Amino acid sequence: MSATSSPHLTIPGPALDYYLSQGYYRMHQNLFTCRFLPIEGSVYTAHWLRLVLADVHDGPEQRRLRRLNARFAVTLRQFQLTQELEELYAAYLGAITFDAPPTVESFLLDGAEHNAFSTGIVEVRDGARLIAAGIFDTGARALAGIMNFYHPDYRRHSLGKYLMLLKLDHARRQHYDYYYPGYVVQGYPKFDYKLFACPAATQVFDCLTGHWLPFSREVVAGQSAVLLADWQEQDPEEPTTD
Q1: Strand ranges inside the chain, DSSP E
Q2: Residue 115 exposed, middle or buried by CB count within 10 Å (0-12, 13-18, 19+)
Q3: Structure pTM?
Q4: For the segment 148-171, what is each residue's pLDDT rounded down to a tens digit?
Q5: Which of 3, 83, 127, 171 could form a disulfide with 176 if both were Cys (CB 3.0 to 4.6 A apart)?
Q6: Element holding 183 (H helix, E strand)
Q7: Would you call 144 helix, strand, or coil by DSSP?
Q8: Do 102 and 150 contact (CB within 8 A), yes or no?
């Protein structure tokens, strides 16, 4: 059970960089973007993020997390789908309270024979035991974090957030410009963990102007209000959030 990149099917690094910079992201073997997210019968707005790597610095919480997990072994390699990864993901899936794809394969490949992205993985081990894995795609000057999962036995170690820091470390060693963690959702804090690494270095994409702006709650709230008003004007029968 494996999937490796084919040079004839891999998205060129500069092309991935461009689409990430326009608010696109990976889904299976495609690139997509969205502005709205239906959750529990309501419609919320999605706001894409990136970190400017030159501005990233650890604060007290990041340093505390690094100390907490310092005894674990960390390795980086090219992504290859293995039974060990699927077993770890199955344990993770059994402990979470939100919807997620049933397997790593379905999350990344969805039946495709080849991986169209240049994909890497960071693994965290406690001795020989794989306890966490973070999968990412690389462009020419940017890294996109695709998925993180960990064994529920290690919940107190905040390994999802720790994997974000490890991906950032790798991106900075490669002298990349940006790290893309996905989106936050206005009024729905479950996605706010993506701000953990360094809020001061985080930018948010303005899909109406095509510009990246320094992240703030006020900027996101303003974008959300405009998006919802525009959408409601086009389709006034649909519900909106408060």
Answers
A1: 25-27, 30-32, 36-39, 42-52, 73-78, 119-126, 129-138, 142-150, 178-185, 202-206, 211-214
A2: buried
A3: 0.91
A4: 999 999 999 999 999 999 999 999
A5: 171
A6: strand 178-185
A7: strand
A8: no
